[in-house]
Amino acid sequence: MHSDVKHAKVPGRLLMVGFGCIGQAALPLLLRHLELRPDQIAIISASADGEVIARGFGVDFRLHVLTEANYLSVLAPRLSEGDFLLNLSVDVSSLALIELCWQRGARYLDASIEPWAGGYTDTSRSVSQRSNYALREAVLAFGSNKREGPAAILTQGANPGLASMFVKQALMNIAADSGGAVNKPRCREEWAELARRLGIKVIHIAERDTQTTPQRKQRDEFVNTWSVAGFVGEGTQPSELGWGSHERHWPTDAARHGFGCDAAIYLNRPGMATRVRSWTPLEGAYHGFLVTHGESISITDHLTLRENAKVVYRPTVHYAYHPCDDAVLSVHEMAGKNWHPQSAQRIIRDDIVSGVDELGVLLMGNARGVYWYGSRLSVDEARRLAPFNNATSLQVVAGVLAGMVWALQHPHAGVVEPDDMDHEMVLAIAKPYLGQLVGVYGDWTPLQGRTRLFSEDVDQDDPWQFKNIRVT
What we know:
Dihydrodipicolinate Reductase, domain 2, 13 helices
């Protein structure tokens, strides 16, 4: 694919809300691959950190902290029919912006569903109400009777976003490797039937980030390779996972939501406090954080089979995230302060000296063993491919770019999740920015090497029970 190919035309204006590390990383790619002039773009940001980058591209930059009280007066005059709102912010309600775009006839895309500031930690609301599950249900309810309205693409970054595409491609790969021709499924029920036929019980979004800098984390500082506020927000939400039909054990601190699709459960603990065992080909076995993510719910929901209104197949799906080492130390320090964030934040990008973000999906239950499919992107390659990026940010903006192209090509699709889109088209656009896209089989299970030092209550006959993916 030529590096400057134009995938789609933006017919009106592009309004970017939020210009942190992901917004700064995305802008060069949008100008490179969309028919879009700098004078068509306006940026609204709560921070002036990226102003120099925006103005260097000739893009209008305005400093505004958007709140529930002022967002209409700030944004509505800037949106008209045919425009596009790209929401890469935190602490701004996604549902509010989607409703505004609907009223103005503008298209929309975000990389996560966000509440207004304080929504993740408002203890006057129930734990369930602070969940990603509740945020998703509210947006889907809004869009349920607006099938042919302006396209509003939910949670289309790397994960959530590309993770859903990885799952579909992984299913196709396993099916092909199992022998015989396989037709590409045409609907969610056919994808679910394929997953059931292949014996898939569990899917991890398995990620290991090894990027590092010479300046290590300092006391009272949170270090990360992408938005600190975004990670702290999702990490202090309840830990959530899609709940499979094969599960026989019920976690002691788990609960159902009691409304909506019922595809997921939550744990009464933060995601940053919940560790799970997982595996990637380069890292091998590791402990990751079971942080809530939209794909844990949407993939499970889309891979659900029902007969006579009864669920007969559904996989367990969750994120197993091992961030960069300094982020792990940051989480450890924050936990010791009872989840009060550090006073200093640092996003590492230009000062990274080495490292890879190994981001993919791990499918478990097939007779051939576990199968990991995803992106291996080094920081050096990310820098060669696009300015203002590290490996993590480029994986995200590759998904953002592909999602925007899909929305521009399907302008009246209504509210859409990544699982609704053509995975081959999305991956074709994102692939030049994902480093190596690889699929690897392995013999790992969550029981491998267990009970070596101390006895544990595990089910040796079925390694895919959540009980055996030890939560600590």
